[in-house]
Amino acid sequence: MATDRHQARRSRLVAAVKKAQLDLLIVSHPPNVTYLTGFTGDASCLLIGPKRTLMVSDSRFETQLADECPGLATEIRTAKTQTADFLAEILGKLGFKRIGFESAYTTVAAKDGLEEKATGIELTPSSGLVEELRQIKDSEEITAIRDAIYLAERGYSVLRALLLPEMTEREAAHELEHAMRRFGALKAAFEPIIGVGPQAALPHYRAGLRRLDEAPFFLIDWGAVEPGGYHSDLTRMVATSKIPPKLDKLHRVVMNARQAALDAIHPGVACQQVDATARKVIEDAGFGKYFGHGLGHGIGLEIHESVRFSPISKDTLQPGMVLTVEPGIYLPGFGGVRLEDDVLITRDGYEVLSSVPLEL
Fold it and tell me: Are 152 and 187 in contact (CB under 8 A)?
């Protein structure tokens, strides 16, 4: 059900809409709608501004809206009206002129069509107003992320018990997702990445038909979505036979980079600085060119959210943010090592929320 926290979020957004000199904002990105209202359906948008808040949806979700968002004003479309025509008619009746839309999620065709149908309005591209609010998690969101991590970790424990040498990457991924769902996960946070040997050098590899016994190690990157929609994101390395010296060396370097990053984390610190701290450890070990991605990203209602640890990030850490810390080294032809944890920024530093052992 919708709670006072959703109303508080909408109030903060109204202030941001007013500051942006907009009469109204069309919030259409489903995770943003969920964040502001508690509604878990789709094909709906929230119209919000200093003088009006209105959910626009269709008859499929009428009962769900009443249950999840009691007290929220709604306009419900039937099958007799097209979505664009219905929204244009509502905007015309409201009488507002300067209307923002989420430019990152709205197609040019949708924007042009709405502008053509809704005469007398001025559509203004807007970006990041809701996402900026979502950067700081409240206590209920942090609890939800903890739950998502717990579900992922339980699934991982089951997978470890089920592993067989002849199991393929894809079979292992299916077993992992099934286990997480059995424990209560809504779904996997993303398609689990299980890369055996050389395939571990592909950061976003899709699990295939390579058998687990075809190399002495594999990388596993996975996460769960808890029932409220919040995500977890973890990565570990699993040795399946004697650990090769090269793998052991890469693992130790990545472990050191991870710890250096954690030591640098504190409210007020630039995300770029944290990335640079971890990156220097890898560069000093001679593997700088094999760490191409950013150190981490925000998580929450989406698996990748706006706060980033990267060389070009402009973000600054604040208490309540939750980000991944995931340094890696990827050697083509040999394999890769990545260690990833979900980390909460606290008032005096950080808390690693995940608890899967780091050792090979």
Answer: no
Does the pLDDT value for residue 1 go beyond 50? no
Domain limit, last residue, from 134, 159, 184: 134
Same domain, 128 and 144: no
CA distance 7 to 271: 30
CATH number of 12's domain: 3.40.350.10
Burial class (CB in 10 A: 0-12, 13-18, 19+), 359: exposed
- Whole-number Å distance between alpha carbons of 278 and 260: 6
- CA dist 325 and 338 (Å) reads 10
The residues, any chain, with a CB within 8 Å of residue 86's CB and separated by 6 or more, are 56, 75, 77
Cα–Cα distance, 278 to 255 (Å, whole number): 10
Q: pLDDT tens across 293-341, in order?
A: 999 999 999 999 999 999 999 999 999 999 999 999 999 999 999 999 9
The pLDDT assigned to 120 comes to: 86
What's the pLDDT tens digit per position in 176-199?
999 999 999 999 999 999 999 999
221 beta partners: 193, 235
Domain span including residue 307: 139-352
CA distance 306 to 210: 34
Same structural domain for residues 32 and 48? Answer: yes
